[in-house]
């Protein structure tokens, strides 16, 4: 069985744990750097990217997370987690982890649509996935090695670049675990 961690500094952590377990993998909440060591994959949850970044720095997670990525291990960023993965953020000089070749804009669906649900077609996942968007970012553009998996209203809301998977919405907030299953399958394939 593969072991998937969920970074547990802030945000929607529990729901990802349940989703990963439902997808047939072992799930662990990661609160300390040492726990990264024997993981096969890691989820960066949704929440508030600026708060998460502050806690990443406070608990010295930045370099270990970059090392985790450099080791080729799979990482899945949802919402704020997507913002953490991106190597370019609209309006910011520096990215956070900066490991995935995408440009992301924060809070980009506008005030009137602070949160909403939308039925999404996600390549390799489902044609009818209900995406829960909460002050969601979107992917403005992707680099050469990045595959766009889903768009909504002409905006990219899910993408994959080899070991990296990212989405604008919160797949863990519904009972539909097909997105978690997609990531768990990625983790299994990359481990094998
Ligand atoms: N708006 C948040 C941010 O910029 C992301 C929202 C979320 O993760 N639901 O970090």
UniProtKB/TrEMBL annotation:
Q: Does the keyword Hydrolase apply?
A: yes
Binding of L-glutamine occurs at 47-49, 106, 134-135
Q: What PROSITE patterns does this protein's entry cite? A: GATASE_TYPE_1, PDXT_SNO_1, PDXT_SNO_2
Q: Which reaction does it catalyse?
A: L-glutamine + H2O = L-glutamate + NH4(+); aldehydo-D-ribose 5-phosphate + D-glyceraldehyde 3-phosphate + L-glutamine = pyridoxal 5'-phosphate + L-glutamate + phosphate + 3 H2O + H(+)
UniProt keyword terms in alphabetical order: Glutamine amidotransferase, Hydrolase, Lyase, Pyridoxal phosphate
Q: Does the keyword Glycoprotein apply?
A: no
What Gene3D superfamilies does the record point to? 3.40.50.880
The active site lies at: 79 (nucleophile), 170 (charge relay system), 172 (charge relay system)
Q: Which GO terms describe its molecular function?
A: glutaminase activity; pyridoxal 5'-phosphate synthase (glutamine hydrolysing) activity
A Pfam family: SNO
Q: In which pathway does it act?
A: Cofactor biosynthesis; pyridoxal 5'-phosphate biosynthesis
- What EC numbers are recorded for this enzyme? 4.3.3.6, 3.5.1.2
How is this protein organized at the quaternary level?
In the presence of PdxS, forms a dodecamer of heterodimers. Only shows activity in the heterodimer.
Similarity annotation: Belongs to the glutaminase PdxT/SNO family.
The free-text function statement in the UniProt record for this protein reads: Catalyzes the hydrolysis of glutamine to glutamate and ammonia as part of the biosynthesis of pyridoxal 5'-phosphate. The resulting ammonia molecule is channeled to the active site of PdxS.
Q: What is this protein called?
A: Pyridoxal 5'-phosphate synthase subunit PdxT
Query: Lineage, please?
Result: Bacteria, Bacillati, Bacillota, Bacilli, Bacillales
């Amino acid at each position: 069985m593969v072991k998937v961690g969920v970074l547990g500094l802030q945000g929607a952590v529990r729901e990802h744990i349940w989703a990963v377990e439902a997808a047939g993998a072992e799930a662990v909440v990661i609160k300390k750097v040492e726990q990264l060591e024997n993981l096969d994959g890691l989820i960066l949850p949704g929440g508030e990217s600026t708060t998460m970044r502050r806690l990443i720095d406070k608990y010295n997670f930045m370099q270990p997370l970059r090392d985790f990525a450099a080791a080729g291990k799979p990482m899945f960023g949802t919402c704020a987690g997507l913002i953490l993965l991106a190597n370019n953020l609209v309006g910011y000089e520096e990215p956070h982890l900066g490991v995935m070749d995408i440009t992301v804009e924060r809070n980009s669906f506008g005030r009137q649509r602070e949160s909403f649900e939308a039925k999404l077609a996600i390549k390799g996942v489902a044609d009818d996935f209900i995406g829960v968007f909460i002050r969601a970012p979107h992917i403005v553009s992707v680099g050469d090695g990045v595959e766009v998996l889903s768009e909504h209203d002409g905006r990219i809301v899910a993408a994959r670049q080899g070991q990296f998977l990212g989405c604008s919405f919160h797949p863990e907030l519904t009972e539909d675990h097909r997105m978690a299953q997609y990531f768990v399958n990625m983790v299994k394939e990359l481990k094998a």
